[in-house]
Design a protein that fits this description.
Oligomer: single chain
InterPro entries: AAA+_ATPase, AAA_lid_3, ATPase_AAA_core, ATPase_AAA_CS, FtsH, P-loop_NTPase, Pept_M41_FtsH_extracell, Peptidase_M41
Radius of gyration: 43 Å
Subcellular location: Membrane; Plastid, Chloroplast thylakoid membrane
Number of domains: 5
Number of strands: 14
EC number: 3.4.24.-
Helix content: 40-55%
Cofactor: Zn(2+)
Number of helices: 22
CATH topology of the largest domain: Methane Monooxygenase Hydroxylase, Chain G, domain 1
Strand order of the largest sheet: 6-8-9-10-7-11
CATH class of the largest domain: Mainly Alpha
CATH architecture of the largest domain: Up-down Bundle
Family: In the C-terminal section; belongs to the peptidase M41 family.
CATH superfamily of the largest domain: Peptidase M41
Length: 629
Amino acid sequence: MKFSWKNVLLWSLPIIVISFFLWQGVFAPITNENSNNIANSRMTYGRFLEYIDMGWVKKVDIYENGHTAIIEAVGPELGNRIQKIRVELPTNATELIVKLKNNNIDLDAHPTKNSNALWTLIGNLFFPLLLIGSLAILFRRSNNNTSGPGQAMSFGKSKALFQIEAKTGIIFDDVAGIDEAKEEFEEIVTFLKKPEYFTAVGAKIPKGVLLIGPPGTGKTLLAKAIAGEANVPFFSISGSEFVEMFVGVGASRVRDLFKKAKENAPCIVFIDEIDAVGRQRGTGIGGGNDEREQTLNQLLTEMDGFEGNTGVIVVAATNRADILDSALLRPGRFDRQVNVNIPDFKGRLEILNVHAKNKKIDSNVSLSIIARRTPGFSGADLANLLNEAAILTARERKNQITLQEIDKAIDRIIAGMEGTPLIDSKSKRLIAYHEIGHAIVGTLLEDHESVQKVTLIPRGQARGLTWFTPSEDQSLISRAQIKARIMGALGGRVAEEIVFGESEITTGASNDLQQVTSMARQMVTRFGMSNIGPLSLDTEDSNPFLGRGMGGANDYSDEIAVKIDSQIQSIVEECHVNTKNIIKNNRVIIDKLVDILIEKETIDGEEFRNIIKQYTEVPYKSKQELKKI
């Protein structure tokens, strides 16, 4: 913890208060006189009078203004030895003095001495003065510090991470795989460095740029690179930091943020996850949220109010642009919307080159092969891939990252942690037939992706896995490709039916059947690939909390609903029959592949296709994909 006088005072105040009460309650009442005359035993007043009558009391010393007596007594009960005994005297004991004189008992009174008056004065004055002085110093320092408790409204100040110099340490060369987005931002950098080039021809500097893309594609990194390239101050804040429990705090923070930004213009203001504060206003069940809506209203005013552009460019990032308020997306606020998509092969290769600079990778490892094997990976996924490979390398006490560690890292990211290999021969053989069924159907269908690996090693919730290498372009998929995927997903269940019988089929195909049903439904309702005709019957995703309906009513009649169910069933049955024919016609090679898989537990795609070539012809398209891999 960082040293500060404020923390010292905060910790000292309770100690001062406790010490004051201890002084008053414990130390002040005790006198030196009393402390030296504490008797070892006590006696009641009645018993004391009996001792006087029996003549056992020899001497009496009275203390504390007649409230306490210390007696010296001798008797058979006391072992015939002189002992000092303490007696608490009643308030009105006037007859005691007379009785002591009549029995010729030595009596001595000891008045209370006022020797601790100075200490009592110190205790009564010093500690309260010290307490008041400490509180005064604490409040004085807190008034000069916006983070102190004395600044009651400091929560309205902006918490932006402000850098007065461009010290982000990131430039465009550090951002790879998103060349189109970088080209858009190069103009923003020119706006910031030399705005006169654009203002001379009447062009206005854009006020806002919205980055849209899936998580991990480099939106935040790209925003930092703009500030690094333009050499301007960089403000960074998350959208969730604006919204607080108290209404008006978020709007106050927006005003404070833009006030600081205008004082340091030109600069970049980066708002991450802007959907936390920029969602649609006044919609959905229960209406809107007053605090969030006021914050959004203030943000809209700051971005396009009565003032012109003061050199402050707002860069925001989100992966949910569909829920943003329309007023936030109009020209004049976010003038440009830049899509930061998942990188293609070239982009993945560039990203891998960036992240491989500080890692010891074996010379036999080709980054292009890794880029080919990781379609759909974002920049964050690729960075995590190389990091996981480095961790596995260190765990195995190796000096360099090899292709073996990279393969394990890919499998772990896609399917989860590696489990314990199967031991039960019956379960192992059943799972082997299931996975080989997927793999052989996918290999023998020309429109299906190529097999990358078949394994019996459990990962995550799966007892076995079959990996296919997805094609690079997933934006356009033909009807034949969708049917091939349905048949590939049915391959495991069909193999169980033919080899073990319908009574022995297992629950292992539950996830496969969900995928089959989903793909068949999309063919009918979304893509118009059925006998119903080229109609889009898919209901849009409902979100009642955004005012988009409850999703309870369909846009088609009950008769069409029956036809949809009939067409889905027809497509699945057709694919199921075709899959059965493939499995039956290749039963010999399936049995051989199962024996090999049980023995080796893992077969890679190249070996799998070489074995099939001995019995049948692999489709031409799969051979072409094999050359790419």
